[in-house]
Amino acid sequence: MIESSADQQDLGFLVGVGGVSAIVVNYNAGDLLLGCASSLVAAGASEVIIVDNASADTSVADCIAGVKTSQTQVVRVIQTGANLGYGRAANLGAAQAQSNYLAICNPDCEIEGNALAALARFLQENPSAGIVGPKILDEAGGTFPSLRRFPSLTTSAFHAVLGQVLPNNRFSSHYKSSDAQKLGSDHWVSGAFVMIERNFFDALGGFDADFFMFMEDVELSRRVIESGRQVGFVADARVVHRQGHSSRSRPYMVIWAHHRSLWIYSRKTTRGARRALLPLIAIGIGVRFAISALRAASGSGAGSPNT
After folding, report:
1. Which H or E run includes 103?
2. What pLDDT does 150 receive?
3. Beta bridge partners of 88
4. Half-sphere exposure of residue 199: CA atoms within 13 angstroms, side-chain side
5. What three-state secondary structure class fits 304?
6. How far is it, in rounded angstroms, from Cα 238 to Cα 135?
7. Burial letters for 18-42: b for 16+ Cβ neighbours within 10 Å, e otherwise?
8. Could you say which architecture CATH assigns to the domain 8-150+178-243?
9. Closest CA relative to residue 163, chosen from 26, 63, 262, 36
10. Contact yes or no for 50/64 (Cβ under 8 A)
């Protein structure tokens, strides 16, 4: 668990800009939820709203019990009563948020001390920025590709298939390369952890509820850009992502949800004459789904969207 916390200057800054409401979408995250909520409180979140998608484990109760007594009032829970998926659950949390900024994240993320203030400061200092993401690290300290280019149809097709068996192919490398941009309109940020102004999130209509999980972050970043704003990235804001806790217990459902979202995204964003290519895109997604399922069955991987 990350022990660092925001300093008084950062805490004062967060109060001065109207605070940050952290929205954590939880589904059977186990003890990772406590680490996530504790790090957000320590980083200066005005409130931590846990939106629980009908978890069967004790993650929520353990989290509330584990948060320090003086911080318990900062953390509250919304029980959805069913597994609504990531975007719909995040929208429910955002609707009840009280702060000017939203930090929306997975329960397997822990934020380092000054990262919340660094992200809010970036949005304050860059009015053209509509959404911003931090640098995300895995448990071993490696960089998670949290900033990616919007791929062309050609790149998408080759990455979708080759990325499963040859992860370092040039199409996947180009897709995952971000050039460390801080602000631009040709890339998107991972929904594992993003910050956005609440009023702007409301104006956009929140996440597209058609996506159960995966691709809702790509689609939201696209709408941010279509609205005339840009996507930001702050390398000095760091988050540790302990990925895969939930997906390991249900790999085939995760694979299905990912590929279903790929198709929904393709159908929504392929326009003009290129729509004639949708049948070929569907075939490509089907091939990728088959490869992913075979990899999961053989134990060589679960077809993660990050490959």
Report:
1. strand 101-105
2. 81
3. none
4. 3
5. coil
6. 5
7. ebbbbbbbbbbbbebbbbbbbbbbb
8. Alpha-Beta Complex (3.90)
9. 262
10. no
Tokens of 56: 């069967």
Backbone angles phi, psi at 46, to 5 degrees: -65, -35
pTM of the model: 0.88
What's the token pair of residue 102?
């939203």
C-alpha 80/C-alpha 68 separation (Å) is 25
- The upper half-sphere exposure of residue 90, i.e. CA atoms within 13 Å in the direction of its Cβ, equals 31
Query: What's the rounded Cα separation, in Å, for the pair 194 and 200?
Result: 13
Tokens describing residue 179: 């050039």
Residues with pLDDT less than 70, the chain: 1-4, 151-181, 244-249, 300-307
Report which of 247, 242, 232, 282 is spatially closest to residue 86, judged by C-alpha positions: 247
Q: Determine the Cα–Cα distance for residues 20 and 281; give it in Å rounded to an integer.
A: 40
Paired tokens of 266:
């393709």
Q: Give the residue carrying structure tokens 């353990």.
A: 62
Using alpha carbons, list the distances in angstroms from residue 227 to 152, 158, 231.
20, 29, 11
